[in-house]
Amino acid sequence: MKVDNSVFPTAEQISATFSAPEDGAFVMVNLLKFKKKASYENGEDVSGRTAYTRYALQMRAMVEAAGGRLLYSGKVSGLMVGEVEELWDTVGLMEYPSRAVFRQITRSPEYREIEKHRIAGLAGQLNIETKSDLPGR
Alpha carbon 46 to chain centroid distance? Predict the structure, then answer.
């Protein structure tokens, strides 16, 4: 299995996400790897985790205002099964009410304003879209 952390989705990934049929709420699993030092254009000297946290707090507020919710966020502390070359630093689970809401948020001027913190702090990430397969969920 190939694992490729990226900061930005490819055009194909964007197309697949936003052209898929609307089917309600979904949870995005975010596996995050931070830069040791953030890369702000102004040279601000903070860690990648600190820069990303600035983004995450504002993103959480935007998602919650749109009807979504943060289900979990925590530091990765170990790997019980399997093997990867390097562990991610943090995992986050964010529930979005719909693809339309996700798209609206990520295309908003407010998102564009906070995205600089995500870019400054991330070395790479995996975003895994998930749908519950349990009855009644």
Answer: 20
8-state DSSP, 75: E
Q: What value does the mean pLDDT take over residues 94-105?
A: 96
Which domains are seen in the chain, by residue range?
20-130 (3.30.70.100)
CA separation for the pair 106, 111 (Å, rounded): 6
User: Are 105 and 62 contacting, i.e. CB atoms less than 8 angstroms apart?
Assistant: yes
Which residue type does 71 have? L
Residue of 5, 2, 65 whose CA lies nearest to 34: 5
The pLDDT of residue 116: 97
What pLDDT is stored for residue 22 in this prediction? Answer: 87
Q: What is the DSSP letter of 133?
A: -
Angle at 115 between CA 110 and CA 117, to 5 degrees: 125
